Amino acid sequence: MGSSRQRVAEMTIRSRLEDVPLLVMWMEERLASSAEELRERVIMAAVEAVHNVIRHGGLGELGSITAQLAVRQSGARLDLDDDATPFPLDLLLSAELPNPDPQDPSTWAESGIGLGMIRAAADAIGYRREGQHNKLTLEFLPRDERVVP
Questions:
Q1: CA separation for the pair 77, 75 (Å, rounded)
Q2: What is the CB neighbour count within 10 angstroms for residue 16?
Q3: Where do the H-state alpha helices sit in 2-57?
Q4: 47-76 per-position pLDDT tens digit
């Protein structure tokens, strides 16, 4: 199978935390032949992004989130589409993982690390607003092709 060959699948869930495990199971099936490290990064970033849409996007339970997953030998691409409030991309692009002191509990983040986790997991991030829809694209490369600063 060449690197240009890809498998693309799409799933839509309701904007409810209870539906996130359905998305995870669906993604695990589609990423089954991918390296474990890649699988873990894609799923972790998806869960964080979807949780942010559900918790902060103002959709309510009537909203929906559509995930399109393209899996190829050279990595994966995840496109998320929702009709939540617009998202400021600069928040995601400037997010960093905290560097807590294991000996000082006051440095341990209780929340707010999800965007940093997404940024650390994805090799490329794109966002655009089309009409009333947010379109988030996350690209993931295999470990041996990653450029990590």
A1: 7
A2: 16
A3: 20-30, 36-56
A4: 999 998 998 888 777 789 999 999 998 899
Length in residues, the chain: 149
Q: Please tell me the number of Cα atoms within 13 Å of 12 on its side-chain side.
A: 6
Task: Check if the beta carbon of residue 121 is closer than 8 Å to that of residue 147.
Answer: no
Instruction: Give per-residue pLDDT as tens, 124-135.
Output: 999 999 999 999
Neighbours of 38 (CB within 10 A): 19
pTM above 0.90, yes or no: no
Backbone phi, then psi, for 36, in 5-degree steps? Answer: -55, -45
Q: What are phi and psi of 78, to 5 degrees?
A: -115, 125
* CATH code that applies to domain 7-97+113-145: 3.30.565.10
